[in-house]
Design a protein that fits this description.
The structure holds two protein chains of two kinds.
Chain A: H1 11-47, H2 52-66, H3 70-85, H4 91-116, H5 120-128, H6 133-163, H7 175-185, H8 189-221
Helix pairs in contact in A: 1-2, 1-4, 1-6, 1-7, 2-4, 3-4, 4-6, 5-6, 6-8, 7-8
Chain B: H1 18-50, H2 57-71, H3 75-89, H4 98-124, H5 127-135, H6 140-155, H7 157-170, H8 182-193, H9 196-225
Helix pairs in contact in B: 1-4, 1-7, 1-8, 2-4, 3-4, 4-6, 4-7, 5-6, 7-9, 8-9
The chains are: A mainly alpha, B mainly alpha.
Chain lengths: ~220, ~240
């Protein structure tokens, strides 16, 4: 068909080349999402704190990260981390640190919008109950902000999963690399790219379908 | 560490300095981004509009499928598909230069996002606008041309701005198929000179500068196109 030949693909090849890459891509996505949401929330709180000393660096960090291409950020970290800690670092570890730092900027914008979407009355109500700032945030504001923003956070996670393919720039072994390596060894690079595209598509399509379902569900609860 | 900015005045081995190479790479980045932007805007506006057509279920489905297809595959993989797979399946594409293939890849990828913006913008218009156009006796084409699209375009200018800046940043992915743009320059010059920090700083500054320029151009357009008395969605509101 179309001069393509997929006969080299079987379970052995998938297990030998692709599986490890898929596991890394998924790991990277999960770790970067959790880390990104954690640090992103901190950044958002800094930006909303009203204190210049906290706002300025957080704003600078978020805007800076968001104005640089991800590939450049990946290259920057791969160059700078060994320089700072004085010893070489693996592409995979570097990718994990990079994605947490990079995604924190994007998640912080989402969390900021989420926190701002909470009516002021909620804040005042917490204060009237005598809650401290930290208690108010932890018990009243953040759970609601998080819930409101859940679909957006998950959509960002899908984008993040797609972006993990960019670790190609430093040669980390991810899902795409698994397919390209298999394609190279069996002399079928085009077929391997096509299969990679199909796998990414199926995963991302299924996830975004799930997010849509979730969104509809949450909309009813409100 | 010490700075060594003179690295940019060194010869890169082919009779030009690294500075000249970098500026040429910048032009490539702008060329890839600019051409892809045209593709993305034309296709995105078309597909996005199709998705809102009344009484045309198959066109709507086709346009929806377009968006899902190009949105759910990573950009890098799409560029590999255009660069390696398409010429193999369709021999006519073997004559097409790599630059054009990358422009297709980046342009269609972005078109899905822009189509989503257009759809949202058109659907954000009050239903009365469409009815008013119908009451005037406009055909579907006329009501889109004279009533719906001009307003929808203004509504989505802010998201179009950020999407255009994203496009510029995404053009960095072209390095993967050896287009001589800024990221490619950064990787190669870093390797050749070992002055990675200076090179990366300069390249990063050029990306930030270009993105800022896009932002200003759109702010200018937004200002010029503003319809008096009409506040675009997203700028007002609050609780």
């Amino acid at each position: 068909m179309l001069g393509l030949d997929f006969s080299f693909i079987n379970l052995d090849v998938l297990q030998k080349f692709v599986w490890g890459g898929l596991v890394f891509s998924v790991q990277l996505t999960i770790v970067a999402t959790l880390g990104g949401i954690f640090f992103g929330t901190l950044l958002a709180l800094m930006r909303l704190s009203g204190k210049r000393l906290l706002m300025a660096p957080a704003t600078f960090y978020v805007n800076g990260m968001r104005s640089i291409p991800l590939v450049m950020v990946i290259l920057w970290f791969y160059l700078l981390i060994p320089f700072l800690i004085g010893k070489p670092i693996g592409a995979e570890v570097s990718a994990i640190i990079t994605f947490i730092a990079f995604e924190a900027a994007y998640f912080s914008e989402i969390m900021r919008a989420g926190i701002q979407s909470i009516p002021r009355g909620q804040v005042f109500a917490g204060q009237a109950l005598g809650l401290t700032y930290a208690q108010n945030m932890r018990l009243i504001i953040l759970p609601q902000a998080f819930r409101n923003m859940l679909p957006v956070l998950l959509t960002q996670t899908i984008i993040l999963f797609q972006d993990t393919s960019l670790v190609y720039a430093i040669g980390a072994y991810d899902l795409l690399k698994g397919f390209t390596n298999a394609g190279k060894i069996y002399g079928r690079p085009e077929e391997a790219y096509l299969l990679a595209a199909i796998v990414y598509f199926v995963i991302c399509f299924a996830l975004s379908w799930g997010v849509k379902r979730l969104q509809a569900k949450i909309a009813i609860v409100r | 560490m010490t700075w060594d900015w003179q690295v940019f005045l060194q010869d890169d081995g082919s009779g030009r300095t690294y500075l000249e190479w970098m500026l040429e790479a910048w032009r490539w980045t702008l060329a890839v981004a600019g051409a892809s932007w045209l593709v993305a805007m034309v296709v995105g506006a078309l597909v996005g509009t199709l998705r809102t057509l009344p009484n045309r279920p198959w066109l709507v489905r086709l346009a929806n499928a377009w968006v899902e297809l190009f949105r759910n595959i990573p950009l890098l993989v799409q560029i590999f598909l255009w660069y390696f797979v398409v010429p193999k399946i369709i021999p006519a594409f073997q004559q097409v230069p790599g630059f054009v293939l990358v422009v297709f890849g980046l342009g269609f990828f972005t078109s899905a996002r822009i189509a989503e913006q257009f759809r949202a913008g058109i659907q954000a218009l009050p239903r009365g606008q469409r009815y008013a156009a119908m009451a005037m006796g406009f055909t579907t084409w006329q009501s889109y041309r004279y009533v719906i699209l001009p307003m929808a375009f203004r509504i989505i200018l802010p998201p179009l701005t950020s999407e255009s800046m994203n496009l510029l940043k995404n053009s960095s992915v072209a390095f993967a198929v050896s287009i001589a743009e800024l990221t490619m320059f950064a990787m190669q010059a870093q390797e050749e000179t070992s002055r990675g920090i200076e090179i990366y700083l300069a390249v990063t500054a050029l990306y930030a500068l270009s993105a800022f320029a896009i932002n200003r151009v759109f702010a200018f357009i937004e200002n010029r196109m503003r319809v008096p008395g009409f506040v675009a969605a997203g700028t007002g509101g609050g609780h």
